Amino acid sequence: MQLIFEKSKKGRRAFFVPALDVPIKAKLPAKYCRTHDTSLAEVSELDLVRHFTNLSRLNFSVDSNFYPLGSCTMKYNPKFTEQIAGLEGFRELHPLFAQCNATLPYAQGALEVLFCTEQALCEITGMAAFTTQPLAGAHGELTGAMIIAAYHRHKGNKPKYVIIPDSSHGTNPASAAIAGYEVVVIPTNKDGYMDVEAYRSKLGPDAAAVMLTCPDTVGIFNPHIREIADLAHKAGALMYYDGANLNAVLGKARPGDLGFDIVHLNLHKTFATPHGGGGPGAGPVGVVARLSEFLPVPRVIKKTDNTFALEYTFPHSIGPVAPFYGNFAVILKALAYIMHLGKEGLTEVSEIAVLNANYCLARLKDFYQVAFSKNRCMHECVLSAAEQAKNGVRALDIAKYLIDKGFHPPTIYFPLIVKEALMIEPTETESKQTLDAFVAVMIEIAKMARTHPELAVNAPLHSPVKRLDETKAARELNVKWKSSLEKDA
Amino acid sequence: MQLIFEKSKKGRRAFFVPALDVPIKAKLPAKYCRTHDTSLAEVSELDLVRHFTNLSRLNFSVDSNFYPLGSCTMKYNPKFTEQIAGLEGFRELHPLFAQCNATLPYAQGALEVLFCTEQALCEITGMAAFTTQPLAGAHGELTGAMIIAAYHRHKGNKPKYVIIPDSSHGTNPASAAIAGYEVVVIPTNKDGYMDVEAYRSKLGPDAAAVMLTCPDTVGIFNPHIREIADLAHKAGALMYYDGANLNAVLGKARPGDLGFDIVHLNLHKTFATPHGGGGPGAGPVGVVARLSEFLPVPRVIKKTDNTFALEYTFPHSIGPVAPFYGNFAVILKALAYIMHLGKEGLTEVSEIAVLNANYCLARLKDFYQVAFSKNRCMHECVLSAAEQAKNGVRALDIAKYLIDKGFHPPTIYFPLIVKEALMIEPTETESKQTLDAFVAVMIEIAKMARTHPELAVNAPLHSPVKRLDETKAARELNVKWKSSLEKDA
Amino acid sequence: MSFIPHTTQEIKEMLEAIGAPSIEELFKDIAPPLRLKSFHIPEGKSELELDRYFKTLSQKGESGIVNFIGAGFYEHYIPAVVDALAGRSEFYTAYTPYQPECAQGWLQAMYEYQTSICALTGMDVSNASLYDGGTALYEAAMMAIRLTGRNKVIVDCGVNYTYRTMLYAYTKNLKIEFVEIPVVHGSSCRKDIYALLDDRAAAVILQNPNFFGVVDDYSDIVHKAHACGAVAIGSVYPISLGILKTPAEMGIDIATGEGQSLGLPLSFGGPYLGFMAVRKEYIRQMPGRIVGATVDKDGKTGYVLTLQAREQHIRREKATSNICSNEALCALRALMYLCALGKEGLRELALLNFYKSEFAKTCLDTIPGVVVKRSSPTFNEFTVMLPHDAEKVFERMVKKGFACGFPLGRAYKGMENYLLVAVTEKRTKDEIVAFAKALEEVVCS
Amino acid sequence: MSFIPHTTQEIKEMLEAIGAPSIEELFKDIAPPLRLKSFHIPEGKSELELDRYFKTLSQKGESGIVNFIGAGFYEHYIPAVVDALAGRSEFYTAYTPYQPECAQGWLQAMYEYQTSICALTGMDVSNASLYDGGTALYEAAMMAIRLTGRNKVIVDCGVNYTYRTMLYAYTKNLKIEFVEIPVVHGSSCRKDIYALLDDRAAAVILQNPNFFGVVDDYSDIVHKAHACGAVAIGSVYPISLGILKTPAEMGIDIATGEGQSLGLPLSFGGPYLGFMAVRKEYIRQMPGRIVGATVDKDGKTGYVLTLQAREQHIRREKATSNICSNEALCALRALMYLCALGKEGLRELALLNFYKSEFAKTCLDTIPGVVVKRSSPTFNEFTVMLPHDAEKVFERMVKKGFACGFPLGRAYKGMENYLLVAVTEKRTKDEIVAFAKALEEVVCS
Ligand SMILES: Cc1ncc(COP(=O)(O)O)c(C=O)c1O
Ligand SMILES: Cc1ncc(COP(=O)(O)O)c(C=O)c1O
């Protein structure tokens, strides 16, 4: 499709600014003014609408396609929560309203939302206190790493590194590193568990924390998790829980009960808030009681008169990690979702997420290698296309063929430790009919890989574009549109 | 696509009814209860969302495609008016609130909307009074015909028929007939004008009214309109203005000034309110002063204290034609549109609508027959594919080929008096770029009709379905889904 | 501010292509004497200004009032999914699907709507919508007259009074005899109706639940009507069909109704939705669009507008109706609503309405001087006799935050002290209790 | 109420296929001692109940207050078209476009976003969004440290105080030296900054307009910074760029900012949008997703995520940043907003903000005891000195229906009597006049 800039015509307008209703009292000195114009697109409202309407139609999305993108939990996002987030009293509320008078209870409804969310998340995870500030999962990890650092600083420890299994999500090592830690990587054994011997050998005074996903990114719940935690604690390290996979164990297990000290959640995944194109997320962080003094300020407290207030006086707090209280509208939608599902509904989420993933695994295990020894998984299953790759049909080709069939591909090539990984996370909101249709195509591809590998290699044929040249993109780095004028220059 | 009923699974639920919060006090006797269940679809919320999201994608629409459907004025419908119609104070207001106390000014804001709309429409059309009750254009026509009847009854006249040109829209004769009149049809001459001699000959005491569209459905403004009106009035007949084409003359001419007595407007067309799939519309009716006593009740009045009220005491009123005050939300959007455009904007609407239609005509007149002698038109142009049809490429084939090219076809085979009619109404919101693209395809087809007629005849090839068998549909009359159980029965 | 994309340069180019010196020249057929005499429309206002203006206007009046007004139009909860989906612009900004190949979404949806209306009413066939419940009833009466060739129509006074008035207004210029049968103790009077059902009767028009919320089984009347060759017409409240006997089960020939309760906001009176479903045999006399299934060239299932030969654009003055634009978007909402609730959901919702209104009855019954009329079972609305003029009570109740129901005096002479109270699923127990308390304060002071 | 489609029968069939006797068996790795100790979550509530609950909650607090609080986050009008389009579910419910062939809509939109941010700031290249303006500034500082290999960062106190606090919080565990330069008469102090710009300086961080709304031209500082090999970082307010000198025009190396003003509701703090645009040479050190144009097999233009080797999912602990989920939907809104306004619209909007705030200054200036600080030009926000404690004044103004601005005492010690007043296009003349009148009543009584 043409770019909006290519549709631009000098002088076209979509939106009209209201007329000036006050006298002109001053002029801004020229030295402060821009001399180059903005060269923003100039289009009519219809141009704009037709452009983005048709652009949107080039995407797959949960609302239009099955989207089993492993680790990303692309479940159905309810519509009623949008309505709630759109309530004027929330949508138009300035975040500083709650800070304009230190003693007065402004913005009570919004503060109550934050407080209730923290309470609910504490109960769901078994943590003692939560902050809603972090703006995504990785941001939660960084917040967690900062808390780890603050804790050790407070204790007078000077640990050097964070222990992370090699199956971990890339954000874990990145977050630890950014917070100033080295990263020590532990290999995964054939069962999909972190190697305990290697792990033990790295514990010691230099270990600040252990960062784990549980169930981990291979879709397996490590039954030795309590031992791992005990060992860490004995060595003086903290246990960090990457909550991206909490959707597998809601109502079954809680990180707090398993021995974790710090938890981040991905509200936009587990609690079903839209994050089209990659965000916004929300990554609240919870901690056990002994770490609560390190949480970011301000914190939302409930006073004895049942009003809510912002509290700043936590001298050991790591400080703010976001300008306000987190991605409020996302948090609000997650709270509405939690309240809608309730105890039973949340438990069902995990039960059916796990059922669906196991169903896919069971139906596909005769056609694809199963990444780890078990024939069972939690909320997602990791297969390998290593067999198919021998005939030239790689995980990437399988992904592209699925696109032609109207299915968003699973996550591919992650976790990095699995060759030709296909990581399938169906989520609980998908029906058996949808899974059956998906499985049928996956089996078709497996067979095709033996008989007509070229068919997969040429896919997709029916998408708006065929396979794209990523190398060219990186080499030529065309990352913004230039008018023909600029190009010539 | 599968029907939603085919996706239905017993026990699935999308929406959950709240729990009963009151004690059960009574039971409805069995004789009043249904014994067959409703057999409505049972789907999950995701099923529902994916079904209708994907269903929607099978449609062309103004927001995604050029839609030059003649006589239907498929212009861009602004988005901000939706926001206004969604304001809780309007959206949740019960229409009877304004009628629950005869003396009290409830629902003032909503009544003001109605009053202001009537005022604006009076000024736009040159009428003395308006009713917003009629629910669509044809409903306005019926209302108009009822007013005509009431007027003649009141005068003691007993006219028998309504005079209508053969180019008229089907609703005109249908409305007249339903109101109890016979229809006398006047032929159109080669210039696209109603034949004046034939017309004169039908005027007389039996003529209740003359129903005209102006500019008429051949896209031409009849310069003799004042004479036609004078003749009608002299004969004691009323002049009825079908306002479906008012969008051609906003700010240029007003039916009131041209000699019309009754006007209906299609707010959903001229004033840009969405009517997806065929409705809802709004067809307010305006009348000259001497007819205002016949307008439907209740009428909205402004009292001396500047409050608004509903008034019922018009003894000659034809009575209500709708349960309340018309399609309020549609009326509201139309008012917002009128206020947004203002005097200048409204005038521009007609100027550019006419410019666009003439541009299409000018660019296409060498490739298609022009229906009437002039090479000019108002807001729409009528071409004929009679030449192309000689090679087997009929208007229908042209329409289908356009679909393959991403354009909604023009209206075809209307007006009925033009062979192989192609009635193109681009509207003012379409850009020159869009018109050029459309014209290019139209020219391509005209050429193709000479060289490769089969290409058009086979179209469309890229739409969700190919050409459909309409005869089979009418013969077999499958107008609802039956479960396999029912089918066997 | 007119959504026009043209730049001055483009206008110039286009005029050149046309061969016209100016836009004005394109209007030359409208000679100076025909030009408008006045056009006093204020200057255009920006979106921001209008947003503010209409927000203020929308708040002029009563806000935060707890509503117990029904009278045929009900405040039901609208699932958020309905708004989200009906707003899809490919539905929202399309028009009548004259070109089926680029309108399969709409056509299939209409086919599904027709199926859902049939499922709800039990009838054989449905059209794709009419304007509203009142015009639907009028169309039904006209159908019956055409079908029977007779012209006497019996109208039960339990039918919404506005619908009755509309019926008489529409037909004033025709030769139709309407006979109204007064309601006795809130129910339709069998004796009077039976007496009128003779070989001159074209139709009998009934409503269930009737205007007083009273539930009935009209099988007996329908039976008598059929015996004398008359058509039985029934106007029904779709939500109530979650539990109530269907028109089909009563033998009714033409079922109509107001579809507002199926996911349409009250919006001060519209847009609403008229539905109509009839016996198979009558389909060719049914007004409105009808969608039928067929196949394409390749044998693939698809949908088209069918039986168009009944309609005005083909049959002109001989059409079954003059309807052209209908209420398609409203029908789409109704379809989505019915699919969202589903079979069980609708049943549960209907029960919830019933139980809540029964609970309200018991609350109101305890108020001294207030009498809940209980001679017949009701669905979610019922009549209450007050010690004073109901309009006065209404006025005082509004001040307490309640729209206490519809004062019946306006619709029925002699019922000035009666109130029609509707209780939907949106009213909580607390609200009902508070309502009763407020009413007690008002009537006892 | 968990959006699960499965029927009991289906669950049974699926368990059979799996070969598991029950769902519980699938959880057997979570042995009993690992099971949760408590799960006191209330029972699920229906949509209708929650709608009511949250509506009530949203109204708890202040409503209908006329807002003059800005402080970096502004109440601008959001064109309706932005909400309508951003809600398209194919945008709304997709994820990061890892598979470009089924995500061209998103990828092209991001490419257009990047282009628009460059157009706005004048910079060479933009990423596809960061969390917010504060984290963007932190990422910029980290970038500068990596680029220069130095670790002293000069921070002007005109930078939003929360952003500064965030910066220090994030880097507490690292070895970075921050030097804050106090603002003098509302503007950044050249003397102090010049003095600190030496060969240890990694970066100087500036903001325009600064926290006090003061407009500056930092070209001189940038020049000095470059002379000593330091990176110039500028945080900017996008709406102001409709008229203000761009970061590029000042020579700034890394421009960042909060994109909330570009079509995002205030929503009590988020989701917002961090943007970042840099010199071409720095692209490989830039955090966040970047979309690039390329071609498909047939040579057709298409878009992909590019330079992924900078990112955590590939580079892990060596990545330029840990960001994964970003604020894509917010960036999409910003793009739509910028396209809706266009070149001229944004300029006009910026001017309108400027003129309105200047008008407000003249209104407030006439109040005895109130002093509008005028030492430097401002954009749409300015500082006012009051005769009393600003928080107290705020409290009394709320009672009169105005949120009168941000009391500066919380951010700047010693400024307890100062108020920061923002005036956007949403404030009408009448509101401004009424605001001044109310303030006069409050401070003079
Ligand atoms: C296992 C895991 N950890 C962390 C993250 C990072 O979360 P976010 O994308 O919200 O920053 C993800 C996201 O994909 C994840 O799957
Ligand atoms: C000329 C003309 N008259 C009348 C009508 C009927 O209006 P409506 O569809 O609103 O009933 C139309 C609609 O297409 C029309 O084009």
Overview of this structure, please?
The complex is a heterotetramer, with 2 copies of chain A (489 residues) and 2 copies of chain C (445 residues). With 489 residues, chain A is α/β, with parallel strands linked by helices. Chain A has 18 helices and 13 strands. In chain A, a hairpin with an 8-residue loop joins strand 12 and strand 13. The longest helix of chain A has 37 residues, at 328-364. Chain C has helices spanning 8-18, 23-26, 47-58, 80-86, 89-92, 104-121, 133-148, 161-170, 190-196, 219-227, 247-250, 312-315, 328-365, 390-399, 429-444; strands spanning 66-67, 125-126, 152-156, 177-181, 183-184, 187-188, 201-208, 231-236, 254-258, 274-278, 290-295, 301-306, 371-372, 381-385, 402-403, 406-407, 418-422. In chain C, strands 2-10-9-8-7-3-4 form a 7-stranded mixed β-sheet, sandwiched between helices. In chain C, helix 6 (104-121) runs parallel beside helix 13. Classes of the chains: A alpha/beta (489), C alpha/beta (445). The interface between B and C is large, with 214 and 208 residues. One pyridoxal-5'-phosphate is lined by residues 71-72, 136-138, 169, 171, 213, 217, 242, 244, 266, 281, 283 of chain A.
Brief descriptors of the model:
heterotetramer; A: 489 residues; alpha/beta; globular; C: 445 residues; 7-stranded mixed beta sheet; 4-stranded antiparallel beta sheet; 17 strands; binds pyridoxal-5'-phosphate
Largest sheet of chain A: 7 strands, mixed
- What class would the helix/strand composition of chain C place it in? alpha/beta
Number of strands of chain C: 17
Spatial strand arrangement across the major sheet of chain C? 2-10-9-8-7-3-4
Helix content estimate of chain A: 25-40%
